[in-house]
User: Which sequence fits this backbone?
């Protein structure tokens, strides 16, 4: 018997630690799988999103194996936040290091063409919008019947306490779809103060015994002097001459105003990059304490909930890999807004007519099968 469904099931390609998946779930979308080539995403993804994680190279994914992950009685959503650089410079045995940027967008296009999910979404840096590979992606989606809309989204308008701009694309086979508008007025942007002021105070190089992620990097003596001379929202131009780096002394420094600087309490933070734990790599100094922000503070400024787990209890907390995972994530709060727009769209269009009903269960790690075709399977 035909059944109309508005239940949405998502597969998240390039899922990382699950920023996008977590936000989609908050919007009421059932996330059935996350796929990423980086094994360190396994623990945070399964622990927080509570969906199966597949450690796979998206370039090697078999479309039929992928399609089998969606329950039959649902509207299928494929999310593909392709990174701007391939994770590895080698793919299918070929050196890809000289390729144009975003070759992985083509892999998302291949999987969309082969599986035809009702809804597609993608998040990326705004400059992707002017690239030939993105334009070709949009043209192909339209050619095969999708309504497509994309927009550069300013994260504070979506409740993220961070000045970050991201390109969001949504596409649908069900009818016209739009990227949601951010509804938070500039007078109501969430500030640094509102989200991190009450965390335990720390010195540089210290960690909170009750939260291993609330850990700040050790500063060199000169950087400690520099941060002591910095004011919230100020620049290195406030320092004594002898504290300035040689490059600062040489140039007007106009392009470097936002390094070795403290955040301001009363506005959203600067963009949280993969190096946000590093005082010299941006405006990543704590507004008051003499240290860079901790990994937990970076995650909170990305709008992850405070309890989000990024590393297994038996594994060490390392700045570089965790900073990369946190800085690369889609802010869950932005993802939630996109998810809500997708839910509203599916309800407004009446969803999908299906014939069969099948339930799936979340398999434990050991049950997760390979998603590569047997021809391509490696290892
Ligand atoms: C921008 S991050 C994704 C962030 C994630 N969507 C989130 O919200 O947390 C890009 C991810 O793509 C993964 N990646 C890069 N190349 C890949 C490939 N060939 N196959 C699968 N994953 C890949 C990286 O490991 C990284 O986690």
Assistant:
């Amino acid at each position: 018997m035909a059944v109309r469904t508005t239940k949405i099931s998502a597969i998240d390609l390039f899922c990382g630690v699950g920023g996008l998946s977590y936000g989609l779930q908050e919007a009421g979308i059932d996330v059935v799988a996350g796929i990423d080539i980086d094994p360190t995403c396994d623990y945070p993804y399964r622990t927080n999103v509570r969906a199966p994680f597949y450690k796979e190279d998206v370039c090697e994914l078999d479309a039929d194996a992928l399609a089998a992950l969606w329950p039959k009685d649902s509207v299928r959503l494929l999310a593909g936040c392709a990174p701007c650089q391939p994770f590895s410079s080698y793919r299918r045995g070929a050196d890809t290091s000289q390729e144009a940027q975003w070759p992985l967008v083509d892999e998302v296009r291949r999987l969309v063409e082969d599986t035809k999910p009702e809804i597609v979404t993608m998040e990326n840096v705004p400059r992707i919008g002017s690239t030939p590979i993105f334009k070709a992606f949009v043209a192909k989606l339209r050619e095969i019947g999708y309504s497509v809309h994309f927009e550069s989204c300013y994260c504070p308008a979506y409740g993220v306490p961070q000045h970050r701009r991201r390109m969001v694309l949504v596409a649908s086979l069900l009818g016209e779809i739009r990227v949601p508008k951010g509804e938070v007025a500039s007078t109501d942007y969430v500030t640094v103060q509102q989200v991190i002021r009450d965390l335990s105070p720390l010195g540089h190089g210290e960690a909170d015994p009750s939260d291993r992620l609330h850990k700040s990097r050790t500063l060199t003596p000169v950087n400690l002097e520099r941060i002591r001379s910095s004011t919230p929202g100020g620049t290195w131009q406030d320092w004594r001459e002898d504290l300035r780096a040689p490059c600062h002394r040489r140039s007007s420094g106009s392009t470097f105003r936002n390094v070795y600087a403290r955040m301001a309490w009363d506005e959203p933070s600067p963009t949280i990059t993969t190096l946000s734990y590093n005082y010299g790599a941006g405006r990543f100094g704590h507004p008051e304490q003499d240290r860079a922000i901790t990994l937990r503070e970076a995650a909170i400024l990305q709008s992850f909930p405070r309890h989000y787990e990024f590393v297994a209890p038996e594994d060490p907390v390392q700045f570089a890999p965790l900073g990369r995972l946190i800085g690369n994530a889609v802010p869950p709060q932005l993802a939630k807004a996109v998810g809500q727009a997708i839910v509203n769209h599916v309800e407004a269009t009446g969803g999908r007519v299906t014939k069969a009903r099948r339930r799936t269960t979340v398999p434990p790690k050991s049950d997760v099968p390979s998603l590569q075709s047997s021809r391509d399977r490696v290892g």
